Amino acid sequence: MPTADLALLAILTLLTLLLIGVKVAKLRLPLGSYTACLWTLLLMCAVAELVSFRIAIWLLAILSFVALREYFTLIDIRLQDRWGIVGAHLAIPFMIYFISIDWYGMFIISIPVYAFLVIPFLISLGGGDAEGTVFSIGAIDFGLFLLVYCIGHIGYLALFSTWKAVWLILSVAICDFLLHYFKAGSMSAWSRALLRYSACLPLTLLLSWGLSGWSGIPPGHALILGAIVPALVGIGRFTVAYIEKDLGVERQRPRPGKGQLMDSLKSFLYVAPVVFHYIRYFLTS
Q1: pLDDT band for position 248 (50/70/90)?
Q2: Does the pLDDT value for residue 99 go beyond 70?
Q3: Cα 273 to chain center, whole Å?
Q4: What's the pTM value of the predicted model, to 2 decimals?
Q5: How far apart are CA 243 and CA 270, in angstroms?
Q6: What's the CA gap between 89 and 77, in Å, rounded?
């Protein structure tokens, strides 16, 4: 078995043992829900590398489905919007299928064009009072874009190369674990953001350069991406945290089904599409 595959299995095994140990010992892991989400993403990569990508990509579909369902429990949606919610969930298998057959053109417009056009029509089929329709359309389309479409880019990146996706996942994880324990005191917002970026930068640069051989990303581009990731993680965390306030998510300890998964995925939401399109434009065209 190649060294890269052994390394991936070792990482997945360590995370598995950690999660099992915490469960058996009935301990509270500070980033328990995040670690479980990380395990799911790495499991997808391991299955893609060792079994079949077309099987692995459906693990990402399940993750997106659960995240989207959780989001819909947090927004003030009307009963008559149920057909729009059904349409949003049905968009997931179509997008995943387009990824699995490497149909980039349809993947890239499946949600931002076709799903965004179909959902308003489905909501209008619900009838009832028209008041609040615009809010419902925006809320459903926004959740679909953020928690399905953006996350779907991780799967497409894994189609390019499993280790490109692994590198992305590990880079984001490094930033998240560092920022979880980061204390900036009473500094200004800009100073705090700069310090957080500076704290993550050396490790993401080192990881990107160190994994360039396995990921297939040339060292120069790897360093550029290593510098981009902490900034995008910061933007994603800041933006989603602001949205979570509006949704009433408990920031310190999100509960299962009440924003926990969305909170775990927030750092990937800006990173995944930007990194994917950088790699596609500069390294695969």
Answers
A1: confident
A2: yes
A3: 9
A4: 0.94
A5: 14
A6: 15
